[in-house]
Amino acid sequence: MSDTQKSLSEVHASVEIPAGKPLLHRWWAITGPALMVSVGYMDPGNWATDLAGGSRYNYALIWVLLMSNLMAVLLQSMAARLGIAGRCDLAQACREVYPRLVNIPLYVLAEIAITATDLAEVIGSAIAFQLLFGLPLLWGVVITTFDVLLLMALSGFGIRKLEALVLAFVGTIGIAFFIEILLARPDWHGLVHGFIPSMPDSTALYISIGILGATVMPHNLYLHSSLVQTRRVGRSKKAIAESIRLNTIDAAISLNLAFLVNAAILVMAAAVFFRSGHHEIAEIQDAHRMLEPILGAAIAPIAFAVALLASGQSSTITGTLAGQIVMEGYLNFRIRPWLRRMITRLLAVIPAVLTILYFGEGSTGPLLVLSQVVLSLQLPFAIIPLIHFVANRERMGTFAIGPRIQLLAWLVAGIIVVLNVKLVIDEMAVWLESAAGGAWIFYLTVIPLALMLAALLVYVSIKPLIERLRAIGRIAPAAGIHRAAETPAIRLASPQGYRRIAIALDFSGGEEQLINESLRFVDKAQTAITLLHVVESPVARAMGAQADDPETAADRRRLATLGDTLTGAGYKADWRLGLGDPVPELARMIAEADADAVLLGAHGHRGLTDLIHGTTADALRHRVSATVIIVPLSAPRPRP
What we know:
With 640 residues, the chain is mainly α. It has helices at 23-30, 33-38, 44-57, 62-85, 90-97, 100-133, 137-154, 159-184, 188-193, 202-215, 218-227, 237-274, 284-295, 299-331, 337-359, 364-390, 393-396, 403-435, 439-475, 511-518, 538-543, 550-568, 582-593, 617-621; strands at 15-16, 231-232, 500-504, 528-535, 572-579, 597-602, 627-632. It folds into 2 domains: 3-402, Orthogonal Bundle (Hydantoin permease), CATH 1.10.4160; 500-632, HUPs (Rossmann fold), CATH 3.40.50.620. The protein contains 24 helices and 7 strands. The strands form 2 sheets. A 5-stranded parallel β-sheet has the order 5-4-3-6-7, with helices on both faces. Strands 1-2 form a two-stranded parallel sheet. Helix 24 links the parallel strand 6 and strand 7 (627-632). Helix 4 (62-85) packs antiparallel against helix 12 (237-274), helix 6 (100-133) packs across helix 7 and helix 10 packs across helix 18. It is elongated.
């Protein structure tokens, strides 16, 4: 795998797992990714849904928190498994399996989810600045546009330092809510009764789905599958199995700590606001303002505001990384992390500013809850591909999940899809009723969009299944399906060797195997070899032959080195570097080289596909007159 294709390449495999050390030492080296993920489960969006649920329904929705947390532990452990055993993140896996036409909307949905997450972080941090320093909410939003640059600067000190910073934030949140619970003195009997599933009314369903979206966050699945790859894990089965086991334990511990924080927020809201008759607390500012008069302790609102600020800032870090992972994974497009962060933050700041200016500062609570509902609606588009990938033995080998875990995972996915479908139908009915004379706009916009999203969900659900069935059919076709036919007589002739073969390299792993396999077709006396590679970087696509970015320079050096190696071994070899779209560039270079045979590597993920960054062999085959030979290679990410 080339450096440009490694997930979070700047910190990839940067943490050494001490081999031969006691188990506790190895676990301490592995722990961290789940902690980074857990902060997303206690961000300001969670606060809004937990406050709304506790103040309105007492302890009745705490079972939703528990159910969501159990789902999160299962799904996050699966995401970690994909990163460790599959050696790719969720976005990269989607790019490999689904066609570009599907990956683009999947990418857009993932970006919407990250923007919704960041919206919650922006509003939460702005509210914290207001509560602690008296700043107007609008100024707080503006400050959050720039505070992320300071936090991102800290990432230059390494992933472990970043994890330590997040740990400090999480500890601050935990201590603050420990103080709140001590002061609130909840009804423990009522709290236990809240673990019995119930749904008081239709509004409770809306809040419950918001809690689900705030707890099982789609961007965390992308994040976790990448962060586990910051550990340098051995490729033996024993090392991978141990890493999966320790990361699963790490996920269970970290996410249960996040559950305790969320439960503390809901319990505090129930014990303080529901008990005092304040059943409509959805604004974080209202909760802060009423804590001191109700509890009679000046420290209560201060601890609340400090915890909120820590929550927003810690979530900012993980949101940054998730945005980078999604963009690089789906689009194979890299920009500087600070620029990526500013783009994401501005996408969140704009709706926050417009909402505050138009509706006033009292509108932030509903906006926070809405952001979490948006997250929940995006969940199936991340969960369903994840289940397919970790259940695929071709990708995961012996570490694919078994039937029982698959059944449980599909049950979780089914629950989420059913809840979301009900929510969408209910909300569409409300919108249609309120549209009155403008109902035609609803039918022209909302209905087609809902149908397209439904079709997309069906496609991502069944496409991997169809591919697996086709693979089974290719491996073991049914006997007697073809009628026997007489074999015609043919005249055999002595074959002539190829004059020039072209070898297309994509630098995703397997170059040595492809070149060695290609030498089977080479006669040193009469066959010339041309090595081909196409650079697909944004600079290469935009500037073509004028491109001179680091990726182009690195690929040019790789080609030159390989060419020199072949020449030194006595072969007649040269190389050509293309820039831009792989198919037309390869076709052009093959024609210029006058090659009569072209050899391509296929990693086996999609039959004869998986040529250079998603380009298909069929697309090239129709553009050249040379013989096209597919060489099956090992997976670009080594399997155990």
